[in-house]
Amino acid sequence: MGEPGSEIIESVPPAGPEASESTTDENEDDIQFVSEGLSRPVLEYIDLVCGDDEKPTTYHSGILFPKAPKRQGDFLHFLKVKKVKTDTESNEVSKNHCGLSKAKEPDFEYIEQPIAEEKPSCSSKEEIDNLVLPDCWNEKQAFMFTEQYKWLEIKEGKLGCKDCSTVRHLGSKAEKHVHVSKEWIAYLVTPNGSNKTTRQASLRKKIREHDVSKAHGKIQDLLKESANDSISNLVHKQNNKNIDATIKVFNTVYSLVKHNRPLSDIEGAMELQEKNGEVNCLNTRYSATRIAEHIAKEMKMKIFTNIIEENAKICIMIDEASTVSKKSTLVIYLQCTIQSASAPVMLFVALKELVSTTAEYIFNTLLSTLNDCGFTNDYLKANLIAFCSDGANTILGRKSGVTTKLLENFPEIIIWNCLNHRLQLSLDDSISEIKQINHLKIFLDKIYSIYHQPNKNQTKLLGTVTKELETEIIKIGRVMGPKWAACSLQAATAVWHAYPVLYVHFSHSYSGLAKRLANINFLQDLGLMIDILEEFSVLSTALQSRSTNIQKAQKLIKCTIRALENLKIHTGKYESQIEDLVKSDKFKDIPFNKNNKFNALPRNILLDNIIQHMNLRLLSEQNHDENIFNYFDLLEPSTWPYEEITSPWIAGEKKLFHLCEILKYEVDLNDFREFVNNNIKSNNVSIPPTIQKARKIVSTIAINSAEAERGFNLMNIICTRVRNSLTIDHVSDLMTINLLGKELADWDATPYVKSWSNCNHRLATDTRVRQKSTKVFHENQLAIWNLQ
């Protein structure tokens, strides 16, 4: 019968698909010692021997196995051979143990010694006993396979690779079409087949294919190199060269975004770098878009996480506008106070598309956006102190507006309407009550319609004036509408400076407008309106300043009201110039007269109305029972009624209790008493820490939506008619980098590149990324360069 080992191996049935497809050379490669790795026939032998409830013999540890034949006997012959094999092995084993000659004894000791000394590194029989095994394996088979393949692990009856699960991605060793198997990483490898033999063969094939796969080999190399270091640090060390190249790409994308350039410009920038010797594969607008998204996401995550960890008080500001593609959008800003900053910090949160402009949809969009940034409802209840908007009906509706829904969820917050919009509304309310003002408004609107629509009129007029005057005329726009005072002042001042030229032009084409300009009442009304608008413009500009808080705004408003009261007594800057202008050479060609058809403005009535509406709209807060300024004045000693103050200041302490509820911050009573006593005795005193913190929280309340207007201005710069294919989310990412990002010289791209790599994105040296399209020149274009 010959040697039992050779007969056994030659009689093994086919090992599934792998055996039928193998060639003679492949089978010859499988002839090896166990110390070099078990071959395919040996794996089959393990299944056969360990499939019975007999102890495995040790012949496989030192015997050189011959190659398996291509064709095998049928299944009945296989079972018969297996029985002969096991009987023969039992006889041989008993013969060896009982009556073996001394000459053969050393050989058996040599064969059995490696198995006796080898210790399992990742699996033991005790561990195997507690595992749920594949249904086609028993404990002995599982033990022998896990002993041979140290990377093999079994979880819940499925196989996995602990090495691949540890490393997960190849990093700098990645190649095209080489990927780490997700099934081996997640322990999802199961056998295929309808019977036990086929399922065993299926597992053998999968184990062997994974063991010899290129990806698994690279994982093994990474693990060998990481013996004294963590996997993540090792990947970063090996990726230093790739990371440096990717940093240059990130810097390029960052620069394009900061300068509001289209991301398609990266192709030209990378082409220049390649010409200078740099090789980068992330050179398409698609890669640039993904990089910009990643930078914006990481930037917001880092900033908002720090704010949440500091438990900072916040104020939310929103505004609504439309893009160039007529999509309604909602811009969301956040103002907060942090310890490292002396003044409040205004942060851009997001730009969101509004599918519907109802109050409910706006509220849900706002809340979901804040939640996505990490601001949970519990955090908002504890730290949201104010909400600011421009005052649109949808937002500030008393019955079902956004503010109503906010107060239902966060009842203690301050609802603040933008002071700049309230300032303009106070002027509009005053003017609407006086009918005589209409002729000035109609005249300015008529000029706007003449010189801002047909180019012919512009050319006819502007061809006869100087460049300086041409600039002034172009500035003329609509006034007395829903615009800020600065815009109205610009238009009125432009008419003032271009007055003589406008009269000459209108006298030839528009006689009705020329008659208005020749009316002295019109010139006086124009001077009065410019004086009023100048005061409004100064106040509006001051309110838009980032350093203006709610208490400073109150002082500025009162100062403007006093200036308007003085204007009732004394003529203003422009009014006082009228007499001299009429007599000057510039106005000598205008025949001024008093036309009763255009009555002059009732000067004092107009000023009284403006002052009254400013007090109503700017110095009173309808959302609270008492004036909110009275609570904030507790923190400003200059506003205290010192003649009424006693020690302790009981009335002040009662207000302090309500102030703490508004600010959601507890001011120490002893600090307040010390603060009051020190200010009674002296003006220059140190401020207790809780008082300082309370004052910073008060300054967190946004008083206007100017920052949102700046955001929309940036949105219009980014989303032009040429770039109107940008989605709202992409515009939001670009705005995030532009508004929150540092200057390029101070920005470090390294952490962003490392997080990019950890997210399994391609690095700049990876050739598997999408390549840019190359421009092909026609032969005729290249021919001129080939001339000798």
Automatic annotation (TrEMBL):
GO terms for molecular function: SUMO ligase activity. GO terms for biological process: protein sumoylation. Signal peptide: none annotated. Residues 1-29 are annotated as: Disordered. InterPro entries: RNaseH-like_sf. This is Zinc finger protein 451. It comes from Cebus imitator.
